[in-house]
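=== RUN LOG ===
request id: a7f3
mode: sequence -> structure
chains: 1
length: 280
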Amino acid sequence: MIDTIDMLEAESEAERAIKQHGFAALPVCPFAIAKEADIVVQPKDSDEPGVSGFLMRVGNSFGILYARHIASEGFIRFTVAHELGHYFLPGHPEALFPNGDGLHRSRSGFISHDRHERQADHFAAALLMPEKLFIEAIDNAGLGFPAIQSLAELCKTSITATAIRFAKFSGDSVAIIVSSGTRVEYCFLSERLKDVKGLRWLKKGDLIAPRSTTAAFNKNPSNVSEARQDEGCCSLDDWFDGAPEVEMNEDVVGLGSYGKTLTVLFTDETIDEEEDEYDD
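=== RESULT ===
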């Protein structure tokens, strides 16, 4: 797993690339950055499960390939930005090409536990949704999934990458949960939720809340494959052990061919833990 130092390095290198290439407004174009770095970007046929992109090295020249089957413009851009991460991040070219020339296969989109892949994911997110510009956009975006959708359209990024970035910088209590069937794939929390005393973070393989809107939604696979949406309410402690009993809004979205579900739990109310101090 990526540690805090790796994440900060990814953010720093992304900011350096943005400044170097003169982007001062959203969206940031990874294709333009690749072109200025003399990196050719092309689609490539790929039937390898989970592989979305490739970084090719021949001597001191690099090329980026992305899987031709990817239908989402946002995910294509994220994939290209991920490969730029491998190019720009210190130590990545040496680690990925120990023998010099070669072709590295990437599994981008926060699905890999490999340190280099995760760091490149964070670089991609920071490149396409730079902190200062993204926070300014959040202030005008609203709440829940509609906010994430509008930010994804502004940044030309995928829904999942935008949702994760939204949780990172939102000033509200927000949880982003990606699930498959009855199980959690991964979870990201806003700083406000991270600060809730006693709340246990969801891990890969944990059961989703059985009485939640998400649980009912996932019982019908076509909800996911056809990218349907639903909304409801739940209690924070339905999802997170140790959390206080706080009502949360629950927006649920099927992620289509990705085969997973995105859940956005959110409230703009302050979570008051005073009652928990007298539980004994």
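=== NOTES ===
The CA atoms of residues 98 and 118 lie 19 Å apart.
The beta strands are 40-44, 53-58, 61-67, 102-106, 173-180, 183-189, 229-235, 247-254, 261-267.
=== END ===
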